[in-house]
Amino acid sequence: MDNLSLVEIIDRTRLVSDVPNPILPFCCPIPDGNLRPGSLITVYGTCPTNQGRFRIDLYASNCQHCRSDDGKTSVYDPAKRIVALHFNGRFNEAKDGSSYVVMNSFHNGKWDQDERSTVFPFQPEQPFCMMILIEEQRFRIYIDGGERPHYQFEHRFSGEKLLRQDLVGFENCVERIVPKMDADKFAALVSFAYNLGCGSLEQSTLAKYARAHNYRGAANEFPKWCHAGGKVLQGLVRRRAAERALFCKSGGC
């Protein structure tokens, strides 16, 4: 995609979900469960004058503001915190009073090396539009429709490697919560737990039905878990439908 303009990139993407006017701080699962090369995230915001900083983080794990479907139970596990991209705009914090942007990542319990940029197109009390394009090797970040990226941030770890490592923990928790499932039901529950957290699965009616071998009842629980920020997200609707289909593939529903 290196030679494509932003207009051409947008023409090749499609709107997966939209969350208007979220309450801050806001945490939302990525529709379909992950990001892949070609994915585009658009953030509209306004910087208030009384806020010296703002941040946008892309987590490869649940964030500290994530809640289960009841909106009350935290699904955050600080021991598994992974931030693939941390974007932090800082107003007037340099020694000379100028503003700058910090980008970083968090993995293995610590922040990596800061990358700083004095490119700063943000203004207090002014709206902005940020587009984050995911590529094979990097994030490209565009502000207010510029055809060329204002910022680039190289990926610092392999998403595939992290996924394999992370899945082991979710497989173990599913085996503990709902033991002795066949391969298809087990895989569906691992996908569910990976997206929503083991705590959500453990406290769910879905797990209760599955443990009782009421597979039809369990299957009917999947569609209930498709909300983020109090709204139904179509990406989560599709993911829950795929998990339900996999859960029922070997029968019993």
TrEMBL record:
GO BP field: cell wall macromolecule catabolic process; defense response to bacterium; killing of cells of another organism; peptidoglycan catabolic process
Top-level lineage group: Eukaryota
Residues covered by the Galectin domain: 27-195
Sorted UniProt keywords: Antimicrobial, Bacteriolytic enzyme, Host cytoplasm, Lectin
One Gene Ontology MF term: carbohydrate binding
SMART domains documented for this protein: Gal-bind_lectin (SM00908), GLECT (SM00276)
Entry-linked InterPro entries: ConA-like_dom_sf (IPR013320), Endolysin_autolysin (IPR033907), Galectin-like (IPR044156), Galectin_CRD (IPR001079), Glyco_hydro_24 (IPR002196), Lysozyme-like_dom_sf (IPR023346), Lysozyme_dom_sf (IPR023347)
Protein name, as recorded: Galectin
Organism of origin: Euroglyphus maynei
